[in-house]
């Protein structure tokens, strides 16, 4: 369960920290590689949908990224 008061990215940051501390370097590398592939395939645009990121209250699913 996530805390809605956590800063943006805190849940993924916690996951990455725990994964690194546990020594799961293959999983970390898989996530980094997947991020690089998606970033390249989408020409550096990680969001393609017409969306105003400045509008408050947005909730975005971060999928397939490591950093």
Run of helices and strands: HH
Work out the strand percent: under 5%
Please, what is the average pLDDT? Answer: 78
Give the C-alpha Rg: 14 Å
DSSP summary: helix tally = 2
pLDDT < 50 stretches: none
Largest sheet, strands/sense/barrel: none
> What structural class is derived from the secondary structure elements?
mainly alpha
Total strands: 0
Q: Helix share of residues?
A: 40-55%
* N- to C-terminal distance: 21 Å
**Large-scale geometry:** flat
Would you kindly provide a written description of the structure presented here, covering whatever features stand out?
This protein is an all-alpha fold and 67 residues long. The chain is built from two helices and no strands. The protein has helices at residues 10-21, 25-41. The protein is flat.
Supply the key terms.
single chain, 67 residues, mainly alpha, 2 helices
Sum this structure up briefly.
This protein is mainly alpha-helical and 67 residues long.
Give the arrangement of secondary structure elements.
Elements: H1 10-21, H2 25-41
């Amino acid at each position: 369960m996530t805390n809605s008061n956590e800063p943006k990215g805190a849940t993924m940051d916690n996951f990455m920290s725990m994964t690194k501390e546990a020594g799961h370097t293959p999983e970390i590398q898989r996530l980094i590689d997947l991020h690089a592939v998606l970033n390249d395939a989408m020409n550096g645009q990680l969001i393609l949908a017409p969306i105003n990121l400045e509008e408050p209250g947005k909730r975005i699913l971060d999928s397939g990224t490591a950093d």
